[in-house]
Amino acid sequence: HDGLDIEYFLALPAGVKKPPLLVMPHGGPIGISDWRGYDPAVQYLASQGFAVLQVNYRGSSGYGEEFVDAGKEQFGNKMLEDIELAVAKVIGSGQVDSGRVCSIGSSYGGYAAVMLAIRAPNQYRCSVSFAGVTDIALLFMNSRAESSGALDFFREYIGDPAEDYERLKSISPVFNIDKLQAPLHLTHGAKDTVVDIEHAYRLKYMLEQSNKPFFWHVYDEEGHGFEEASGAAAYYQSVADFLRENI
């Protein structure tokens, strides 16, 4: 939409004609990227019959400093637009079932997964968020981020929670839940020090108040990811079951 070339990767399941599509934005979001190498989550989901789309939206690493800087203050705007354009490109190719699309991600990817479903309620049949950001201003109330000096980085790339509060509120899932139509698979690690579990509880409360359908689980011994393979296996089995039921 503004001249940037956006790279994406599409994993297709073997032997499945026009499979359902999972849109899976990476976390970060700044300075992180997906790549063509083996990804166990992608391969597992593809083995279950899903096509998996990964998008290196603006702000991703590996494309130069200008590309990273293009992600400044685009947390809930042009980053999501980049993903949406990639989704449109893939659907337009005819390789996937355009009527069976879900979003999935963790951390920023979990945020993006929910926001994509909020922004296009008629396109997404379900959404999956693990350790997702739900109230952007809440990111700044994080002792780990404060002690590491990350708050200055947040202000530069996300916005100032005091000066930009209304803008940050407008792109936060907890304040837009009325627009969500898709069932949500919402999970979080109780020991997460990167995205506090309060994010999940706030979204859960809003889902309950709005009578929205959702699956909920807290992993008591996990943080911002899975320490043990058994935990990850249980999570992805739950996700696969949820996807098959809703996509």
Write the layout of secondary structure elements.
Elements: E1 7-11, E2 21-23, H1 40-47, E3 51-56, H2 65-69, H3 78-92, E4 101-106, H4 108-119, E5 126-130, H5 143-148, H6 150-157, H7 165-170, E6 184-189, H8 198-209, E7 214-219, H9 229-246
Parallel strand pairs: 2-3, 2-4, 4-5, 5-6, 6-7
Antiparallel strand pairs: 1-3
Explain what this protein looks like in three dimensions.
This protein is an alpha/beta fold and 247 residues long. 36% of the residues lie in helices and 15% in strands. The model has no long low-confidence stretch (mean pLDDT 94).
Short description:
The protein has 247 residues and is an alpha/beta fold. Helix content is 36%, strand content 15%.
Helix tally equals: 9
Strand fraction:
5-15%
Q: Order of strands in the sheet with the most strands?
A: 1-3-2-4-5-6-7
Identify the overall geometry: globular
Give the tally of β-strands. 7
H-E order: EEHEHHEHEHHHEHEH
- Cα distance spanning the termini: 29 Å
SS-based class: alpha/beta
For the largest beta-sheet, the strand count, sense and barrel status come to: 7 strands, mixed
Kindly provide the radius of gyration, computed on alpha-carbon positions and rounded to a whole number of angstroms: 17 Å
- The poorly predicted ranges are none
The chain-level mean pLDDT equals 94
DSSP helix fraction: 25-40%
